[in-house]
Amino acid sequence: MQQIKNNEKQAGILVPVFALRRENDLGIGDTKAVLSTIDFCRSLRFSYLQILPINETSEDNSPYNAMSSIAYDPMLLTMEPGFIPGLLDEDLKTAEFKELRFKEKLIDYTLVKKVKKSLLEKAFSRFVLSSSLVQRKDFAHFCSQNKDWLSRYTLFRVLVEENDGNSRWSDWPEEIQNYKNALSWFKRQKNKSRIIEKRRFYAFVQWVAYNQWKTVRQYADIKKVKLMGDIPFGINRYSSDVWASQELFDCQWSCGAPPEPFFQGDEFVKKWGQNWGFPLYRWERHEAESFSWWKQRVLQTTKIYHAFRIDHVLGFFRVYAFPWFPEQNDEFLSLNKEEVRVKTAGLLPRFFPGPDEPEESALINKNQGEKILKVILDTAKKEIVVAEDLGLVPSYVRPVLQKMGIPGFTIPMFERNVDFSYRPTKDYPFLSVATYGTHDHPPLASRYNYLCQKAAQNPYSEEMRELKHIGLFIGWNSSELPDHFDENIHLRFIEILLNCPCWLVVFSISDLLGIDLQFNHPGSDPKDNWRERLDKPLIDYLKEAEFASKLKKISQYIEQSHRS
């Protein structure tokens, strides 16, 4: 059982690394910006910095759809000579580099990837020719310590390159569609040295990334700020993991979530639910090899983080899955269940291992989740495990989390009484992370302004009723509520959550600043997602009158709530 002391209440900030900004960055947040964010946290008395997954992403750039469960994303690396062996100042003077520096709000992923890969290739070329003995030994040690996953990942990355950047390994020639066959293919190649050098390059990038993130961890320790990471429940169907260990995954089904009242999304989501595209886990195979894949994933995570959030912990108990892939959603949108059965040979979306009814089935689900979580807790050791337990939560999940000492999430807009009013914060559980929303939810400012606009059009609307509920929640009469999200109501939202009993209170960076920046818009075109950035470095907000006074008051609230 995990132990969290009830006299150690904390406060934290959630911000995606890609959204950070610093002077002279390359069009995206990076590890150097994270170092500054740690300073920002410390200056305001925040003791936790939560970030989204930092694994290498695939074509859609989603942190939750990684190309590898372990490899770090090269896009988030700091491209400066002091941070990358072999990189020179002269490398940073190209036209493309200057273009990236002047990018405004949205991330241009295509250009970022191109420029950063080019810089890393230049650095690697010099590293091969002129690195020090200490550097070469450290690189060799890293490769030796990580050879299990690194050998699979580097070969996969080379094969992606050989196939014109296409990571859909099922489209590749049959002789390289799995790791074992690809090794045989590699042995037959006449140009082995070229492939070996490319694999060394990808290993070099991971070594550099590990060292940069290790520096972030060390700096956080010095500043007494704890880092919270994120382990997504699913893994990309076209990741190096699935390609190399296909026996551990069922690629015929696609993980997702059933329709739910609080998450409407687009028409498909309203009718069928969310189809994420991840393969199912073959849990019996994972158990047969003592959950080694999951253990490795957790161990790599704890090298950098003091705590980590498991995204969609419900999936460990039972997961909803579709007999078709997300790219086929449009084909099924207008169909009824009988028409779907005709198209899928009798299959419908369903829960795996099974539904929560009857009781015997629920017990199977409960026992499975408990078994997997015990493996994760035992592997994490002293680092804290947090469970994202949102959505349609079976009745057995939260008692299991409570018994194991794992904090879940408490989001006020989901915590309702029978009359749909908000539960008082004094009734929130200690073993919980309280927050107004995750990266998937609209920020406070956006949501409040939307309610005000709708209520102004119709004083008898649902939105007006919701505003009255909000007034009761924050202890104000509805007549006191402003007609837009202003500083007073912003600070009141912050203050009331900080005074709740929960172990940890986390504010998204948008809610902390009171801005309407949303990083993920579920259901939107993936190419237009995960691109929003802050308009200035976080430290600069402390210098601007509009934000400085608010942030000072928030820091005082943290101290008054005994969370500093």
UniProtKB/TrEMBL annotation:
GO terms for biological process: carbohydrate metabolic process. It catalyses: Transfers a segment of a (1->4)-alpha-D-glucan to a new position in an acceptor, which may be glucose or a (1->4)-alpha-D-glucan. Signal peptide: none annotated. Belongs to the disproportionating enzyme family. Pfam families: Glyco_hydro_77 (PF02446). Gene3D superfamilies: Glycosidases. Keywords: Carbohydrate metabolism, Glycosyltransferase, Transferase. It comes from Methylacidiphilum caldifontis. It is an enzyme of class 2 (transferase). This is 4-alpha-glucanotransferase. Its EC number is 2.4.1.25. One of its GO terms (molecular function) is 4-alpha-glucanotransferase activity.
